[in-house]
Design a protein that fits this description.
alpha+beta; eight-stranded parallel β-barrel; 15% helix; 36% strand
Length: 708
């Protein structure tokens, strides 16, 4: 390496001539001394979440810069107008128009930059103006979108951004209907991006513009093909070199490659592919080791012998191989991994869909505490923060588009849904956590021509855009197992509610799975949804199955259901995954059941994230390696029957219990359930306590029950 310029010289442009400096950078696969790398960051991102004005009605002339919005509410984004009325029952929440306006002065030093206004999520249709100039419309409530605002948003001056949003029902946009509240508003982050005229494309379905395709991934080596989409917005032809660098967590370069100089005409684009090899990679290995490299693409403007880094995009890279076998289930990096996890909605009490990064992090903290290793992000594209957290924490992800319940047989609906599919893939292509792309959920017209024509086209988009991942679809539990809609994808999930809407919790699920596997042995099947409702204020000892739509959803039945369901699922390794419905209670304004209208109460955790239901601890005892010792029915504090039982979930080998200081004995268990039946409470307060030794440490839990 002696005689080559330093990497600092190359990046600063001080080396003697661009071609000489770039020649000194090793290409992919070449032997080079270990060096450290810090990606330059010429891009500027400005948060635009604060200082908005809002009104929940349609207002004429609100796009005009001089419009008087002084009477509107002052809000910050993320924001939704349905945080309250979307969860109060009756299905009469506001579905219509809301207007947002914001004044903003662009820093004068950004003059000459390309400017892009980015919205991370607006439900469902957004029309955007800047200084009275109409930028365009975005349809679809869950994907990121951007508008170029160069020359419209003026640097150094006062600017007005106006956004008209509607969540009114629109049969030409998916979803037309679903079992959750369609909350309106700019409910995710808003930002302004300033970049060079020579840049990685920003308008490629609002994707990152660089795409990291990995192949031949083993412990010995891995290949990464970096596709970079360039665009030249300058007024003259530029000479461009693309440099790709992959570095490990310490910043040590493990692979790099530089293209030859290429002429790129004004107002034109190009696509550059570079193949890099990595020796002895550290694999992204799920919960065990979610290791992430960084992949940076530098755009060098080398016109007239200069060397200026015009743009840099850095994406995280997790190297892994995935496969599903019809008999042995899911495999990560060549080893079997039974996927067990939860379905996740983006909604929470008091905020609706307007959740923050801290909220997302809290959700993932709870999911990891549970011991889940997989998440189905239902029923739409989630915020980027969720996928980033899954990458960091090693969770396998099923990502999907919001094609739920029904299909409209129209060119507009088809185009919009296909667009949402491409947005989902392009925007999230580089996330190693994502393994499954979902094309739909529970379409009722499962044999309809329009339904299956659309689903076939969506499966085709996945194969064209990303053939390395697995397509999937969630079949409605009431539909035949061989329904046509479930035969378009490489894998299939089934939403089965034995023990709730139909059938028995004891054995029906396992019998169904065995029958399907025997009759269709080549099908790769999963349990995409299973669950029952539970109120934390309603209790009964070993209750029978409640009426799903009724007002009585005792917490104890949910626990009994999940005990039976998980035992059946765990015994069937041919099922590649199972996903509890759902991780958290969530708003579904059309529901009126359990102890609260407007809520789907099938969560393992309450909507406010304050209470982990008993079933949460059942899964924690089975899935997590952290010590678990939990007395069930702990919220049933006021008792009327003296004779009851004590039931404990734990991953201990033995648990010792006392009642009012008197020993109930020590029990052993092979299934994480410890049960003392027929114990007798005394009038007044009773203290139940349990003790266990787990991994050499002693743990205790206790509750007080009062007998009236």
């Amino acid at each position: 390496m002696t005689g080559f310029p330093t990497r600092r010289q190359v990046l600063s442009g001080t080396a003697g001539g661009v071609l000489a400096s770039l020649a000194g950078i090793p290409s992919a696969g070449a032997a080079f001394a270990a060096t450290t790398y810090t990606a330059p960051n010429p891009r500027v991102r400005i948060d635009l979440n604060k200082g908005w004005r809002f009104v929940r009605e349609d207002v004429s002339g609100a796009e005009v810069p001089g419009f008087d919005d002084s009477g509107w509410a002052s809000i910050n984004t993320p924001h939704t107008w349905n945080a309250v009325d979307g969860a109060d029952g009756g299905n009469n929440y506001h579905r219509g128009v809301g207007w947002y306006r914001r004044r903003y002065t662009v820093p004068s030093e950004l003059a000459g930059k390309r400017l892009y206004l980015q919205f991370a999520g607006v439900n469902q249709v957004a029309d955007v103006w800047v200084n009275g100039t109409y930028l365009g419309q975005h349809k679809g409530g869950y994907s990121r979108f951007r508008f170029g605002v160069t020359g419209v948003l003026v640097a150094g001056g006062d600017n007005v951004i106006a956004v008209k949003v509607t969540n009114a029902r629109d049969t030409n946009i998916a979803p037309v209907s679903a079992d959750y509240t369609f909350e309106g508003g700019i409910y995710r982050n808003v930002s302004l991006w300033a970049i060079d005229n020579l840049h990685v494309r920003m308008e490629d379905y609002a994707g990152p513009g660089i795409y990291l395709r990995q192949s031949n991934v083993t412990a010995a080596s891995a290949t990464v093909t970096v596709t970079t989409k360039l665009w030249n917005d300058s007024s003259t032809t530029r000479s461009v070199v693309v440099r790709s660098v992959i570095a490990d967590k310490s910043g040590t370069v493990v692979a790099e490659s530089s293209s030859t100089a290429q002429a790129l005409a004004a107002a034109a684009g190009a696509e550059i592919k570079q193949t890099l090899g990595i020796d002895r990679p550290r694999l992204w290995n799920g919960l065990a080791d979610p290791y992430l490299y960084s992949a940076s693409v530098e755009i060098h403007d080398v016109t007239a012998g200069a060397d200026r880094i015009a743009d840099v995009v850095t994406e995280r890279l997790g190297l892994r191989s995935v496969a599903v076998d019809a008999d042995t289930g899911f495999h990560l990096n060549g080893s079997h991994l039974g996927l067990h996890g939860v379905n996740l909605h983006q909604e929470r009490a008091g905020k609706g869909w307007a959740v923050t990064d801290a909220d997302h992090t809290q959700d993932f903290d709870l999911i990891r505490e549970l011991g889940a290793n997989a998440i189905r992000m239902a029923h739409y594209q989630h915020d980027q923060k969720d996928y980033e957290l899954a990458d960091e924490r090693g969770l396998i992800v099923w990502a999907e588009i919001p094609l739920v319940n029904s299909v409209t047989d129209s060119p507009a609906f088809t185009a919009s849904t296909q667009n949402q599919m491409r947005e989902l893939i392009r925007q999230n292509y580089n996330h190693p956590s994502i393994v499954f792309w979902g094309i739909g959920n529970e379409l009722t017209d499962y044999n309809g021509t329009a339904t299956n024509r659309l689903l076939a086209s969506l499966a085709g988009i996945i194969e064209a855009e990303d053939p390395d991942r697995l397509s999937t679809y969630a079949v409605r539990g009431e539909d035949p197992d061989n329904a046509q809609a479930g035969l378009h994808t490489r894998t299939t999930g089934f939403n089965k509610y034995y023990g709730w809407y139909y059938g028995s919790k004891d054995g029906d699920l396992g019998a169904w799975a065995d029958n399907l596997h025997a009759n269709s042995p080549s099908r790769k099947i999963a349990m995409s949804e299973y669950g029952v409702g539970a109120s934390t204020t309603q209790h009964a000892l070993n209750p029978p199955k409640p009426a799903p739509g009724g007002s009585w959803h005792p917490e104890e039945y949910q626990a009994l259901f999940h005990e039976a369901a998980w035992k059946q699922l765990a015994a069937r390794p041919y099922m590649w995954g199972s996903f509890v419905w759902a991780m958290f209670d969530f708003a579904s304004d059309g529901r009126n059941e359990g102890d609260r209208p407007g809520i789907n109460d099938k969560g393992l955790v309450t909507r406010d994230r304050q209470i982990r239901k008993d079933a949460f601890y059942w899964y924690k005892a089975n899935w997590a390696s952290t010590p678990t010792l939990h007395i069930t029915s702990r919220r049933w504090t006021q008792r009327t029957d003296a004779t009851t039982e004590l039931k404990v979930y734990s991953n201990a080998d033995q648990v010792t219990a006392t009642l009012n200081g008197t020993s109930l004995g020590t029990l052993s268990s092979g299934d994480h359930i410890f049960r003392w039946a027929g114990i007798t409470l005394k009038p007044g307060q009773n203290t139940v306590a349990v003790t266990a030794t787990i991994n050499g440490s002693t743990y205790t839990d206790s509750v007080n029950w009062t007998l009236a």
